[in-house]
Inverse folding.
């Protein structure tokens, strides 16, 4: 990340990835270059987001991180919904949630914990995040339990109603956390990140970086099917792990960066905030969109595997974050649970 | 609730509901009048309970609220057990538990939170309530998991033993919370409610109000079967939602009243205390009673739907109350979970 | 425990149990004598461990207690694995975990709570223990959920990988709690137990006591099969309750002793530390050993009953210990859950 060298790499690999894509080069080559390119563009997005965050305050910055971090997922999922690939959508939603809670948060806590013995953050934020995550689990668990006794029509009605309730809960959460109880949830010990650019330039670069992430993501996704077939991987594993890891690269670098600066509140906000946004906003919006786009709407009924994975991720994240303090071992625990889930998803 | 006007409404609707019942008027009319009447008698019970609570102290008052709030449920359930309608009993037990945890508590926290930015209560009380709620979930979950390998005789033996253990746990809880650790669980910042009447009159009115609630409940229940058939509702939905909402009207008004006076400790005690009393005392007593009343005793094996609903309600309530502080958004979350459960129970 | 009388009983019953075993006396007699003998040798082990703990510090002492407390289980399980009795191994692992969490901890909290109104311990320790227990539940729950779609070969591969991850998590936990974050987890109010002997003698007696426990355990196990058939008990019940209760006698006496001395941190460390060691170290080691010893390795897939029992035990223990404070009623709750599980395991 040494200034000029970084921007040179960013431009070279982004352009190279574009050429590889439009020139229809060898798929495995396309894939590898796109992967490298996405690390750079995600890093750029992280820088830009942090610079904007400097002007916007820590918590609003965390929210911006979550929003721009999910841009890639939203674009990918939108394409999948349009093609009616509902199972892959659900797998990638699952993957994004557990990826944020276990991998992004785990890596942030672990690396932050190697540098600082103990990292503290606002316990009210952790407590509210927990309750919202439980709402997300409940909203996925209940339909799956009750769906046995329902017709397709009833299931789709139920899905629409639950989706609307979740979106309402999410919008009211924004109202709560940004308007009525802003001070309750903000971190006391805010230590502002340096601003790389002026306010105007920061916002411009945030926009540019988002567009670059979106393009690179698309190029990458285009190669995924062929590459996965070549290496014999299942759609569930690819959706829940490969897409999620690559799609969350932005959160990764941003959250880890925050953790290394001892701003654990912001790292938690990025990781948990992002998974909440996916569960309570992105997924329900996709359900409503699917109703508009296609004849048969996507339902909210996730598979037992997916609910078990999300439930387990929420449960251990809640246990680890609820005291408002983290250390390297707690990060490691999250990573171990992620690896266990990765192993079983890979085998299934 | 403007004094004289309230008491006029109370008398008029109570008498009108009685006439409608005994004169066998149109069932839908009977139903509507009984619903209005129960709002008034429940309000009266709330007033009387609060007045008694003024003399008895906040926590004992909360306990009184729970006890008198469950009077209606107990009477209804007793009739159902006598008729051998065990599935409806279990549905109404389920409904009473989730109604108290999600609807009563949710409404109290929400309305209290609209008036006060943050409401605090004794965190020890919340912590002990959580542990007892988990005992209740365990006591319902374990028999349901293990029942596959058991004969009817063994299931009924198991139900009796678990019922006796739960009653013992409940009675020892009363001993713990009223005798050995009274100070641990009491709220520091008690702000006594005004007493409407003298001590003697308060107790008399508490008795009168309880009798009025009982009568009105019975009239209402008498119309339920016909009304639900007319409007095409399932027994599960009626038992778990209609009966529970109407039967809990007393807790509703009492708990919301407490919350609006910033006595959140008392509101929590009413709502959670009431659901604990149902799970750990009313339900086990009904099991033992069923053994006495009929040849085939009611077992403790609840359906997957019911256990899922109770488990989900306990889990989110625990998450929200464990920090001893509430706000409007946390009340809203409880209400959203209640609506989601209502939707799926309605559809099943 | 009056000095000389105790040591006389120890020697008499240990020798008597040995004679009964090698002379092939009546099995029921062998069983009863071995039971009495094990109470004495466990008491001796408790004394020796506490004396060593005096020299080693409270937390290291707790760790020693856990280690030597599990010696008996390890030896028993090793024999069972060698004979390929994998179901009994899993039942006894289950029994050891729930026995430590519910019976040992419950009895400690209950008896300690009868003597002291409130007993406090380091809340960081409780919080980390909770997170590790959740890892243990996740590691058992995930394979059981996903195993449906796997071949025997894949299941055994998954079991090996998960076992290695758990052992890594356990060893890093020791590194964390003994090296990098020792002070975070230690109890402030340490009140050292008296040392019965010199440091050298204490270590010698610890060794002697461990050997005596091992021998007595083996003699006892030899009689179990015949005795259980004679009294018509299932293997599941015997493995999960009888073996676990007898095998945990050392933790029992040691943990209860600590609780009665108001050293609740040490009691919690013995009980929870012991169950963590079994879940995260003993069980995975047995899986790896089974791979070496026999052709078909033992898999990590526990039955629904076993996972439900462990999950329930972890959940209620977490709820009760998370505030770092206990009282008699909380101990009672743990014991009631243990009895409920005992009843259903006995009936199944």
């Amino acid at each position: 990340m040494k200034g000029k060298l970084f921007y040179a790499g960013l431009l070279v690999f982004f352009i190279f990835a574009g050429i590889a894509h439009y020139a229809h080069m060898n798929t495995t080559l396309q894939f590898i270059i796109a992967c490298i390119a996405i690390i750079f563009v995600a890093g750029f997005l992280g820088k830009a987001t942090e610079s904007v965050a400097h002007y916007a305050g820590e918590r609003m910055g965390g929210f911006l991180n979550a929003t721009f971090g999910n841009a890639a997922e939203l674009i990918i999922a939108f394409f999948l919904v349009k093609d009616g690939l509902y199972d892959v959508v659900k797998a990638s939603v699952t993957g994004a949630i557990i990826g944020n809670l276990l991998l992004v948060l785990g890596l942030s806590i672990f690396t932050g914990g190697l540098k600082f013995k103990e990292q503290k953050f606002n316990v009210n934020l952790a407590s509210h995040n927990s309750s919202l995550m439980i709402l997300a689990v409940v909203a996925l668990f209940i339909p799956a339990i009750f769906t046995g006794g329902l017709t397709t029509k009833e299931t789709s009605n139920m899905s629409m109603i639950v989706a609307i309730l979740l979106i309402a809960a999410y919008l009211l959460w924004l109202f709560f956390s940004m308007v009525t109880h802003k001070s309750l949830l903000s971190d006391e010990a805010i230590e502002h990140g340096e601003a790389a650019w002026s306010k105007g330039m920061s916002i411009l670069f945030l926009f540019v970086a988002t567009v670059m992430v979106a393009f690179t993501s698309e190029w990458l996704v285009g190669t995924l099917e062929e590459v996965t077939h070549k290496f014999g991987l299942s759609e569930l594993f690819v959706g829940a792990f490969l897409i999620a890891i690559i799609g969350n690269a932005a959160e990764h670098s941003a959250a880890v960066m925050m953790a290394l600066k001892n701003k654990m509140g912001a790292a938690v906000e990025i990781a948990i905030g992002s998974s909440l946004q996916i569960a309570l906003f992105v997924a329900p919006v996709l359900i409503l969109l699917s109703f508009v786009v296609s004849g048969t709407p996507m339902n909210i009924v996730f598979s037992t595997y997916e609910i078990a994975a999300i439930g387990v991720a929420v449960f251990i994240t809640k246990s680890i974050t609820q005291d408002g303090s983290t250390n390297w071992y707690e990060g490691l625990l999250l990573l171990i649970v992620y690896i266990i889930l990765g192993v079983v998803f890979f085998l299934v």
Summary: The radius of gyration of chain B is 19 Å. The interface with chain C takes residues 123-124, 127-128, 130-132, 134-135, 138-139, 141-143, 145-146, 149-150, 154, 157-158, 161-162, 165, 168-169, 172-173, 176, 180-181, 184, 318 of chain B (CB under 8 Å). Residues 1-347 of chain B form one domain.
